[in-house]
Design a protein that fits this description.
This protein is of the alpha/beta class. Helix content is 35%, strand content 15%. Bound molecules: phosphoenolpyruvate and manganese (II) ion (MN). The site of phosphoenolpyruvate has 10 residues, from loops.
């Protein structure tokens, strides 16, 4: 059966939520994504050095993050920007996992890199620029690791779910969807966080959905507010950029939180998470008109 959204689009069958079907829970080491816990993935945009990553891993773990992010292969808007440390970066990520117990999420940009990255990563990240790289998605369908699929910056939700279906059709249903902001006419923020995408996708699909407030905002001062919004709309977690010295970061420094700012944000989210849990337990669910099922 196929989930319809408001007469506009149908969700593709393998990723569609139908009838009484339970939501997908994606196990990653000792963590469950989509199972009710709010899972925070945090770390630098790019792995720059062992010291930078280990310091960040310890700080984000201490503040409550469960998964460490960090790009070893970087898709950059300019060909002259830092392109990542490659395999050396993967080895540093592995060291940080051993030191802190955090699971690792890192980006894969092409099908040729899937095998090597799958040897190191717990979750394979597909960036916004790669969402429609179908050869990559097919290879990830066979990689045996969960996939974090970011929404293309100009992709409709139907196109987003189509990409998830490509991974699923190739044998992998361990998919986490990520709303990271889309291109609109607005220039005050780097992208426009499509916050409504979270409940829409959760209505039509059984897959977990997380929010990346950092790339959506482009500036660090907006990250806490967008994270609170993610909690309120029912996201399953966050992907947040954190750096020991954002002003010296080789990529995305303006949107990266300092360790102190990250800790404060995590502390400030607690009452919102507690309220969300209470509301879930005590209030009847609203039924969407024209939504799924
Ligand atoms: C990133 O997570 O650092 C990244 C490059 O994200 P996006 O693909 O959303 O731009
Ligand atoms: Mn980044």
């Amino acid at each position: 059966m196929i989930s319809q959204w408001n007469g506009q689009f149908s969700c593709f069958d393998l990723v569609a939520r139908t009838g009484n079907q339970l939501r997908s829970v994606i196990p990653v080491r000792d963590i469950e994504i989509g199972g009710g816990d709010f899972v925070v993935m945090a770390g630098p945009c790019a792995v720059e050095s062992e010291r930078q990553l280990l310091q960040t891993a310890e700080a984000v773990a201490d503040a409550g993050a469960r998964i460490l992010r960090g790009g070893a292969y970087k898709p950059r808007s300019s060909p002259y920007s830092f392109q990542g440390l490659g395999v050396e970066g993967l080895k540093i990520l592995r060291k940080a996992r051993a030191a802190t117990g955090l699971a690792i999420v890192t980006e894969v940009m092409c099908k040729e890199d899937v095998k090597v990255i799958a040897e190191y990563a717990d979750i394979m990240q597909v960036g916004t620029r790669s969402m429609q790289n179908y050869e990559l998605l097919e290879a990830l369908g066979r990689c045996g690791r969960p996939v974090l699929l970011k929404r293309g910056m100009t992709a409709t939700l139907e196109e987003f779910l189509r990409s998830a279906q490509v991974i699923a059709m190739n044998g992998n249903l361990q998919i986490i969807l990520c709303e990271r902001g889309i291109r609109t006419f607005e220039t005050a923020t780097r992208y426009t966080l499509d916050i409504a995408a979270v409940p829409v996708v959760k209505m039509v699909s059984h897959l977990p959905v997380i929010v990346d407030p950092s790339h959506a905002a482009g500036v660090r001062c907006l990250v806490p507010a967008l994270s609170r919004a993610a909690v309120a709309v029912g996201a399953d977690g966050l992907l947040v950029e954190v750096h020991p010295t954002p002003d010296q970061a080789l990529s995305d420094g303006e949107q990266s939180l300092t360790f102190g700012e990250f800790r404060e944000m995590m502390d400030d989210l607690q009452p919102y998470l507690a309220l969300r849990d209470r509301t879930r337990r005590t209030r009847p669910r609203l039924v969407a008109v024209g939504g799924a099922d």
